[in-house]
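Feature request, filed as a ticket because there's no other form

It would be nice if the structure record came with a short human-readable summary line next to the tokens. Right now we just get the raw output. Example of a typical job, pasted below so the devs can see what we mean:
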Amino acid sequence: MPAGQYRIKGTADQRARARHQLRTELLTAAREIADESGGFEKVTMRAVADRVGYTAPILYQSFANKQALLIGLLDVGFAELADRLGRAQSPELPHGSTSALGPIAAAYWEFASGNPHLYRLMHSLPDVPFGTPDAPPSAARCFEVLKTAVKTAAADHPATAYDDDAATDLLWAQMHGLVSLMLDGRMKGGPARGRDLLQILTDTFTTATRTQAPHSSR
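Raw output as currently delivered:
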């Protein structure tokens, strides 16, 4: 399709749906390229355009540059993670687990292990604010889902008296640490042992000693 000849036609609603569909196609293409090439370093606007069959100028109607495209992917990743964590909240504990955080941690682990390149991008893309009102809404929602799970678990273990935000930051940091070691191949015993350690983490987290921690939020 020659540059400049792509026009979305129809009613306002139809045009909005078409723009959303195009954006989704572009993000999906970028994600596929990253999975195939081993990371987002080789994702370029030209490569994405070639994958979807449009000329590069069409991409710039949705994303101003590669950074904007990657921020879009980061947003998709956190939205998917938030959805998974939300679905994992259940009053029924998995076999062998003593903490309501077990299913949450399992969902977190499965997302990261199934989407390693996207997970790394979500936690390493520079110039993206976190812990401020300007943080991506999907990341903030992910934090709130985790915080709800932490508060629920704390209610079952009154000895846990962390500030809710601090406790959530601590849980996220510890899960991220285990996941990062696993993804980088630096976990003794490999992913299987890492998965066992994850259960130990959640089973002990809510019975930790009373701690006064500074307030923070994602």
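Something like this underneath would help us a lot:
The mean pLDDT is 84.
DSSP finds nine helices and no strands in the chain.
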